[in-house]
Fold this protein.
Amino acid sequence: MRATAKAHTNIALIKYWGKRNEELILPTNSSLSVTLDGFYTETTVQFKEELERDIFILNEEEISGVPYDQVTNYLELFRTYANRKGLFAEVNSTNKVPTAAGFASSASGFAALAGATSQALDLNLDDTALSRFTRQGSGSACRSIYGGFVQWEMGEKDDGSDSYAVPIAPQDHWDLRIAAVVLTAKEKDVSSRVGMKRTVDTSVFYDGWLESLPNDLRDIKAGIQARDFEKVGSIAEANCLKMHATTLGAVPPFTYWQDTTMSVMETVQQLRKKGILAYYTIDAGPNVKVVYLPGDEATVLQALKATNGVEEVIVSKVGEGISYK
Ligand code: DP6
């Protein structure tokens, strides 16, 4: 009735941006990510007969409010599946994601929670089934079950049974580096959940985004297999720009970028003009991730740190999949 799981966060090179079913978290497009070794969540779940409600402790602090509700609603999925209604758990999580940095910990958080819960209940789920469960906590989290390069297959079925992540290439396939560039942060005002819904419902650019995805996915996978960094980096960067363009066509329009976001984009473009292959990608917030090859690390880090508004740069290698203690 007790288990511990550790899962790493991931960064999408081809973005998930829109749902076709909000309750089951079914996406409008397939996406592709790389798992990061620098950011992870470790979670212990212990079910106890004597508990009258779930308890959620995050970084040694008992949590209430919205994050508590998310965890307890999510555990309810497992209780229903396992036929254990009324059996409550103590959930104890540690986030090795610099929280001040404003990086989403939901991917590693839900993956670790799903893994620990399924083990604690002895559900014997394979990774596909686990990824399906994880998806229902937060979409991008379903990719964190695997290390290396991972695709989330959107699936077609209404019940979501064919919507889960599959590994594309293992952790040791390619030694890339991903710098998480932390900017002097302001609160983000549109969450990814709200932003993607508004975009799907109202953006005049949304159809163009969707149409472009099959080619992006096909080409980036070929690039990953061939370890063609220029190809992979340029597709990822262009895909990120297209995703962010859809938000400008929404009603009302919005953007996740700040002036400092664009300063980092400019730094990366300048690096490329000097022959250094570095590419950026941005999720539903102002921070930027920069992908580059190990040999260019010193030059890339120096340029990023010298950019206006950059508070911190945290380097990750390609990370591993979920593990248990
Ligand atoms: C821009 O997975 O956080 O990071 O499914 O509503 O929990 P929910 O959304 P979430 O969205 C991630 C969006 C993204 C792109 C990506 O990671 O693919």
